[in-house]
Amino acid sequence: MNEYETPVVYELSVPGRQGVKLPKPDVHKTALPQELLRKELRLPELDELSSVRHFTRVSRKNFSVDGQFYPLGSCTMKYNPKVNEEAAALQGFRRTHPLLGARETQGAIALIYKLQESLKAVTGFEGFSLQCAAGAQGELAGVLMIRRYHHDRGDLKRTRILVPDSAHGTNPATCTMAGYTAETILSDSSGAVDLKALKTACAGEKAETVAGLMITNPGTLGLFEHRIREILRTVREAGGLVYGDGANLNALMGIIRPAELGFDVMHINLHKTFSTPHGGGGPGAGALGAGPALTAYLPGPIAALTGGTYSLAAPPKSIGRLKAFNGNFSVLVRAYTYIRLLGKEGIRRAAEYAVLNANYLKHLIKDEFPAAFGADRPCMHEFVVSPRMGNGITTMDIAKRLIDYGFHPPTVYFPLIVKEALMIEPTETESKETLEGFAAALKAIAQEARTNPELLKTAPHHTPVGRLDEIAAARKPVLRYQDKPAP
Ligand SMILES: *Cc1c(COP(=O)(O)O)cnc(C)c1O
Hints:
- By secondary structure, this protein is of the alpha/beta class.
- It has 15 helices and twelve strands.
- Helix 2 packs antiparallel against helix 11.
- The site of pyridoxal-5'-phosphate has 14 residues, from helix 5.
């Protein structure tokens, strides 16, 4: 057992011990307002070294891309180049006050402008807004734009947005939040959108109530929606617009420009595809690209360049702001740095390697973990398996056991259309050795499932806490540290 495996001790406080000494004040001393001082708030008294060791030890208890393979499907946990952090930490970016005017912040606005232009080049869209804080917020903005578009034309009858049953949970949630009914379109036996079901949903009188479609390509099964043009044509002929969930752009960037497939609006998760550390809750950025029908409705402000001067303004029919100031600016700096680092060729190669890595891993584990859909054809950047180990072993057991092998588990129980889904996205930044090591761990776990299923049922074994009661955690959450366990 090494230092990092010892249990974390939280109670390190020693009365009177101090980490900092404040300088003698050179201004008049005033007593703190007593009503603001909480008597029950017992702050720990600790020296600096103990604090550093405590936080370093706690940080090592977590999984991270910098520490372990993190094949969390749909989340694109690629390596985040450290040069991104250097760029984001530049004083001129980090210390710029958001209330400064355009004249004082030409550099920052130039970066926003150049990132907009780069994303246009990658996706083919006509306009880009970098306002939104995440993919989900981009979705909401995009669907509100679709809504405004129909209303501006006096078309008030459209109430339904069609969403494939393989969609990310944020898609139907977005439709509902934007005031629409999310209508599920089933997948066919190959995992693609069931074209017949889609045509039925758009046929006859029903056509008048179709506001649009939300679709991910490649879909959450990691398969390219090969009839995408026909799908889009069907929705368009009914008078609907098409929202593209661009979370899976990592499979396509530099190869296909999504706007050319016919999407009207699409978000890109800059924190996924363009490498900002994510997974702990943010900050992220949902860049929103729009085609000719919707560019005027994009959220503002958007950066423009006229006569050598950069400025910020909202487009003419903008749906407004979704976030203060210019969104999560530091994520935009990272995304721009990453794009400049890779260049046009590098971006294409990243997508190619992402697909190659996924296919190599899919091949390595196919005997014990065959893909639930598309086992007989290449996948894109990820794939979904449906483990059937017997002995009562569930996907959760496999996921928990993977932690003992030093790997972050893949996404579990998503997409919903795959029973016991295990969704694996290795990304382009992993080496052949890492992929082989992960495949070996999965195979070892399959063997354990046959010979010692209890080992899986009770995993993880090498973590400070073992299997958690997830139902109790959801029903009776303990949201702050307590030195005594909750009753
Ligand atoms: C991650 C993801 C989203 C949501 O994006 P956030 O940035 O997490 O809000 C939507 N759709 C798909 C397919 C995703 O993978």
